[in-house]
Design goal:
1302 residues, 7-stranded parallel sheet
């Protein structure tokens, strides 16, 4: 890296805040570039950090002159050079006392330049001329010529008497070597990817026949040797005789049994992890392991898998290895009582169960887990097999979610039987480190390790990135606890097929998006008239958005049906057979429709329509329907009810809620009781009462008593007079009028409420009618089966119980069960699979629920040996499921590899589903199938795809994705300027950008991302505004989900804007060296081991060691080799007129740099070859090439310059002899020393992390995993790169160092 020779001036202590009117004379007021708070900067202070947000910054240029004029301290004599920041501002020097502490946030290896927009001080790598401000995201450009002039501008200031002694001027700065910057960036990114997979054969065992199909292993894992095998199999002779297991499977048996003899530091028995991919034969390997343990007298085993159907495969595998005497007892067929009791009678053998059974319990509260632990007993040392153990993931979920019960149960059973021989089996067992939490028997964390608990282990891996995961896999293999091989995908074809929306489907999609937006407004309006507590608004909107997502997901699937049918028919016509993979069968919507409309329907059920109908019917907000007044609700009846009602009961029989008051003391209670009894006695003793009209006194029995107001009247005083005293309750005329008014008012209120209810009901009915009239697609599964010939031609291997079948006359469809009298529902999928394998049906449709563990490859033993064309109509939600589905059609013993067709629509939002899978696939390779870089080209074998495929381009739910989303939202809301021009817009036509932003805001309002939207008045009339809540600003998943509900045009434009911003951020991260590029391949013309490797650590359990390797790399290209390259291009007719040797237009340290450039046929850009470092990773455009270099016509001049640079670079870096890192700097050096720590890494992880944190270069601070191969003997090493400057620190921190013999 280019080193700046001068430290920038550190900032003075931050000034305090000041109110506007409190500024001292001579002080300067400035607004912070970060938090926008107004700060008071003392006279003479140029650089400072904001005390609120800690952002390092400096005075803007327009305030510098004022600061200088007010600063009374005399300046020093004229300096010979100017401090860097002042140089860049082209201002006279300010000589201030320098505090010894370095500037906060200032990187001394970079230039410090102020942003032209927000004035924040930026650390800019030397030579970088275009970049975005990370604070305000404005695009910036550096004028190098002006910068150079400012560096050499003469400065003079007359001395002032009484000045403090001047600070000695720093030495003149070195020139910025742009070429060195470019080479340094490439070295930090690493070389190109080598071969990802290597052919695999057991390195230390030769027992058994070769595997029937080619097997491969990642090149990283192949660089690690397993420990020496010491275990002697009891079934060895039997296996050699029967050849039931291949050499690979026998190798797994040996290492698993050997590992099971070891114990962890906490006393539990060590476990083993089989990470083999589909087709290697994990089932038969497990059967062999059970048989080996049976021979040792361990006759009980627990086999936990994902489906009860797989018990038939378990039985078959045991028979194949000769273990017919071992019984298989399916737990789901057994009672909850003791398994070894007389009634049940399971004394030994295999108990086969599913993960769901592990958490099941009876009505009496007895759990299966307790039953199994009781059967095993406390001293159990037999096999505990977790087959397809990825089912137990999410034991340690991300923040905000709960651990799964299955994950907890898997840990619990391991705790309860500590001596069990645990076997973890899964091709996707650790798709990310978080999902390894249940693998407690591997001994990667806990007592005796570098990590006290799983969270510490997880934290270390998160820091290490993708490469660290690969190291964990290598570590486990080196310790003899892990194998991971997979079937070679040689011969398999892979293609991503874009299923563009047809005109009719696009119109349907637009109509649907419009309808959902209107439905949202309708629901908001309907909810506004309801009380706050009914219905629950958060519940309503949760259901709305989940239904919204499922609806458009159905629509995306339906859009791919025509392409799916077309591809399937084309495959069938070329004598191939078809497997179609999907996830959702639409069974729930079908059963609801059948329940509602009957078994016979006019056509197939439309899943989207039924989903919409169900949502509106069950969740449309209706006001409460009022209870009408009954005939009894007349004044007379109301008086009677009131008179007869209990004091605490209303006239409608509802108990009145009365406030309960507790007396303050017993004395108070006694006083109240006395007062009440006194009142009672007065009432009973008083025989005379007063008339309310004439105030005359009379006997109570002669007065009329109103039952409503409780007042007394003379019969003659009331108008009209009452002649006879009534025998029943009487109501005075005043109360009678009030009661009638109340009833009349109530009638009006009820009528009004009824009218409102009827109107809402009518609106709901109209919405339902609109839904019924929408032209929506049928259930994709039924549609495909129907178009490909019906159930007689298509084998369905799914989890649904029934299906709709078209009537024989072609009119209408009928619902029928999938099973028949002869075939039970439990066996229907096995029957359908057999029909397909026997060639009676040439199309199979599989879902995850029905196809787990099913083999559908072109098996040599099957009648149907046609080549499989595997269409993924619907991508699974996780990489685990994706790989399991891909593995259904690609397995051992097949006549041909399958063709894979992954279908996507041209809708940006649909990539949400690919995003989730890609996030897993990107890291999946570490513990299953290799590095993330393997899928850059579709021309590579499909295996590359499984481990981080071209799908990695669709991984948006990352840190960079979240940041991109925030930048996009702020740009759309016009809070900041967008870093890219929106799609379909032009900077020459600003109105196009303005129009796009308006449409984008409207779209985000329509899908509920922008809230509290307001239409502005005044000068911004018609402008939409609103807010995006903080939790939505980084929620990429929500953005991509909601995006699906927009019309295709704006959906795709928004998505393109998002990905463009993501590309910019990733590009900037690469330049800054902060992008995790996974494993880096170190390439050179000559790679040799400089010294014998040193052993720096030994694992006491397995004997595996950690080694320090030092390599010498010669990266240079001689003049003869360069000339041959150019001549070869011209001879083959592949050259262009611009091919040839070039020299740099600028000089650095009195030298020019020479390169060879030739056009790449693939990209149209130019490949660059340098004398010192060979071929560059980055290709250059012709315009950039001509800007920086001039073509040489004289071969003699080119030769002299090339050979001179080749020679000088063997001893010196590109920064020259005054480079600050001295001999440790390798930028552009032809002869390079590289240190790699290989072998076991986890035990010394903390030591290396600590040593790297002390390094000067930013790129040296992060943990970097590299792969290097010697050119003499092809020895391959994968490990952590240790910079030369850090080697001594690492060795000192480790306990001991010992050279090993050759």
């Amino acid at each position: 890296m280019t080193q700046s020779p001068v430290q920038p001036p550190p900032p003075l202590p931050p000034p305090p805040h000041s109110a506007a009117g409190n500024v001292s004379r001579g002080d300067v007021q400035v607004r912070c570039a970060g938090c926008r708070v107004i700060l008071r900067v003392k006279t003479g202070v140029v650089e400072f950090s904001c005390p609120t947000c800690q952002l390092p910054q400096m005075l803007p240029p327009e305030l510098l002159s004022r600061s200088r004029q007010q600063f009374s301290q005399p300046p020093p004599p004229p300096p010979q050079s100017i401090p860097p920041i002042q140089q860049q501002l082209k201002s006279p020097p300010i000589n201030l006392p320098r505090p010894p502490v370095p500037a906060h946030g200032i990187d001394p290896t970079k230039m410090q330049l102020p942003c032209a927009n927000c004035q924040a001080i930026l650390n800019v790598p030397h030579g970088l001329t275009r970049f975005s401000c990370p604070q305000c995201h404005v695009e910036l450009a550096v004028d190098v010529s002006k910068l150079n002039r400012s560096l050499t501008a003469p400065q003079s200031t007359p001395p002032i008497s009484g000045a403090a002694p001047p600070v000695p001027p720093p030495p003149p700065p070195e020139e910025v070597n742009e070429e060195a910057i470019e080479v340094e960036r490439e070295e930090d990114e690493g070389g190109t990817a080598g071969e990802t997979f290597m052919d695999y054969r057991p390195p230390k065992l030769s027992i058994g026949p070769p595997h029937p199909d080619p097997i491969v292993e990642t090149s990283s894992l192949s660089a690690v040797q397993p420990p020496e095998p010491t275990y002697d199999l009891r079934i060895k002779e039997e296996l050699e005789r029967t050849k039931a297991l291949s050499c690979l499977q026998i190798e797994t048996l040996v290492y698993a049994c050997q590992r099971h003899l070891q114990h962890l530091a906490d006393g539990t028995r060590a476990g083993f992890f089989v990470g083999d991919g589909a087709g290697v034969g994990k089932g038969r390997t497990i059967a062999g392991l059970i048989w080996e343990n049976w021979k040792h007298g361990r006759r009980k085993a627990l086999w936990i898998s994902i489906g009860s159907d797989l018990k038939y495969d378990a039985r078959r595998d045991l028979d194949d290895v000769g273990a017919s005497s071992v019984g298989v007892n399916p737990l789901n067929k057994l009672p909850y009582s003791k398994l070894d009791s007389k009634n049940v009678g399971v004394k030994d053998g295999v108990v086969f169960l599913t993960y769901n059974s592990l958490i099941a319990s009876s009505e009496k509260g007895r759990s299966r887990l307790q039953q199994l632990v009781q059967w095993c007993g406390p001293e159990f040392d037999g096999l505990l097999i977790f087959d397809e153990c990825h089912k137990a993931k999410n034991l340690v979920p991300e923040a905000g979610s709960q651990p799964t019960r299955i994950g907890q149960a898997v840990v619990d059973i391991q705790d309860k039987i500590p001596q069990a021989r645990v076997l973890y089996c899964s091709a996707t067992g650790a798709s990310e480190p978080r999902n390894m939490g249940y693998m407690v028997r591997l001994g990667l964390w806990g007592a005796g390790t570098s990590f006290s608990d799983f969270n510490k282990f997880l934290g270390a891996l998160d820091k290490g990135g993708v490469g660290a995961l690969e190291l964990v896999a290598m570590d486990m293999k080196a310790r003899g606890m892990y194998v991971c091989r997979t079937l070679s995908y040689k011969g398999a074809e892979f293609e991503i097929v874009e299923a563009r929306l047809e005109a009719g489907m696009e119109a349907m999609y637009n109509k649907s998006a419009e309808f959902w937006a209107e439905l949202r407004i309708e629901l908001l309006s309907a909810s506004a008239f309801l009380p706050n507590e009914k219905p629950n608004p958060s519940q309503l909107w949760r259901l709305y958005w989940s239904s919204h997502q499922r609806f458009f997901r159905h629509l995306c699937m339906s859009a791919k049906v025509p392409v799916t049918v077309r591809l399937a028919k084309k495959a069938l016509s070329t004598n191939k057979c078809v497997v179609i993979g999907l996830q959702s069968t639409g069974e729930a919507r079908t059963e609801e429709a059948v329940t509602k409309y009957g078994l016979e329907l006019d056509d197939f059920v439309s899943g989207p329509r039924e989903l919409l109908l169900k949502f509106v019917e069950e969740n449309y907000p209706l006001p409460e329907e009022p209870e009408p007044l009954s005939e009894d609700d007349n004044p007379k009846e109301l008086h009677r009810k009131r008179h007869s009602a209990s004091p605490g009961v209303s006239i409608r029989g509802r108990v009145r809620k009365m406030a309960k008051r507790k007396p303050e003391s017993d004395d108070e209670s006694d006083l109240q009781s006395e007062a009440e009894s006194a009142d009672d006695s007065n009432d009973s003793d008083d025989e005379f009462q007063i008339c309310q009209i004439c105030s005359g006194e009379d006997e109570r029995k002669k007065l009329l008593h109103c039952s409503e107001c409780d007042k007394l009247f003379h019969p003659d005083c009331v108008i009209p007079p009452v002649t006879d005293l009534p025998s029943e309750a009487w109501v005075c005329y005043s109360c009678k009028e009030k009661t009638e008014e109340y009833i009349q008012a109530r009638r009006i209120y009820i009528a009004d409420m009824q009218k409102r209810y009827d109107a809402a009901l009518e609106r709901k009915s109209k919405i339902i009618d609109i839904i019924r009239s929408l032209n929506l697609p049928n259930n994709p599964l039924d549609d495909i089966v129907d178009q490909l010939g019906g159930p007689d031609k298509v084998a369905e291997i799914t989890g649904r119980r029934g299906m709709l079948v078209r009537a024989s006359n072609g009119k209408g469809v009928t619902y029928q069960a999938r099973n028949t009298k002869d075939i039970t529902m439990e066996m229907v999928n096995m029957h359908e699979k057999q029909q397909f394998m026997d060639g009676k049906k040439f199309v199979a449709i599989i879902s995850e629920a029905g196809s787990a563990g099913v083999s559908l490859q072109a098996d040599r033993r099957a009648a149907n040996q046609r080549r499989r064309v595997h269409l993924t109509l619907e991508l699974p939600w996780s990489a685990d499921r994706a790989i399991q589905q891909f593995g259904r059609t690609h397995r051992s013993n097949q006549t041909s590899a399958p063709e894979y067709r992954l279908l996507f629509t041209n809708l940006g939002g649909e990539r949400r589903f690919a995003s989730i899978v890609a996030k897993r696939l990107e890291t999946l390779g570490a513990l299953t199938q290799g590095d993330r870089r393997k899928v850059m080209l579709l021309s590579k074998p499909f295996l590359s795809c499984l481990a981080g495929p071209s799908l990695s381009a669709y991984n948006y739910d990352s840190n960079f994705g979240k940041k991109s989303l925030m930048v996009m939202y702020r740009g759309i809301m016009e809070q900041e300027k967008l870093p890219v021009v929106p799609p379909g817009c032009s900077t020459d036509e600003p109105e196009t950008i303005k129009e796009f932003l308006t449409k984008a805001r409207a779209a985000l309002i329509a899908v509920g991302i922008v809230r509290d939207s307001v239409l502005a008045n005044g000068k911004d009339v018609g402008k939409l505004s609103g807010r995006i809540i903080d939790s939505d600003m980084h929620d990429v998943g929500r953005f991509l989900n909601r995006l699906l509900g927009l019309p295709p045009d704006i959906q795709n434009r928004l998505f393109e804007l998002f990905t463009s911003i993501l590309d910019v951020l990733v590009h900037n991260a690469r330049i800054e060296g902060s992008f995790d590029s996974g494993i880096v391949d170190m390439k050179a013309n000559s790679v040799e081991l400089l010294t014998p490797p040193k052993t720096v650590h030994v694992d006491h359990m397995s004997g595996a060691s950690t080694m320090l390797f030092t390599f010498t790399l010669d990266r240079g290209v001689t003049w003869e080799s360069a000339s041959s390259m150019l001549e070869g291009k011209r001879r083959d007719g592949l050259g262009s007129a611009s091919d040839g040797f070039y020299e740099s237009k600028r000089e650095w340290l009195g030298r020019r740099h020479f390169i060879l450039a030739f056009e790449s046929a693939a990209s149209g850009l130019f490949k660059i070859v340098r004398p010192a470092v060979g071929e560059s990773i980055r290709e250059m455009s012709l315009s950039e090439l001509k800007t920086k270099y001039r073509k040489l016509s004289s071969l003699e001049k080119a030769r002299n310059g090339w050979e001179d640079e080749y020679e000088v670079s063997s001893k010196q870096c590109m920064h020259g002899r005054k480079c600050k890192l001295g001999e440790y700097c390798t930028v552009g050096r032809r002869i390079q020393e590289v240190n790699v720590v290989g072998g076991l890494i986890l035990p010394i992880w903390g030591t290396i992390e600590k040593a790297l944190s002390k390094q000067a270069r930013h790129s040296h601070k992060r943990i970097r995993v590299i792969r290097i191969e010697t050119t003499t003997d092809n020895q391959r090493i994968v490990g952590l790169s240790i910079p030369n400057a850090a080697v001594e620190t690492v060795l000192q921190d480790l306990a001991w160092v010992q050279e090993i013999d050759d």
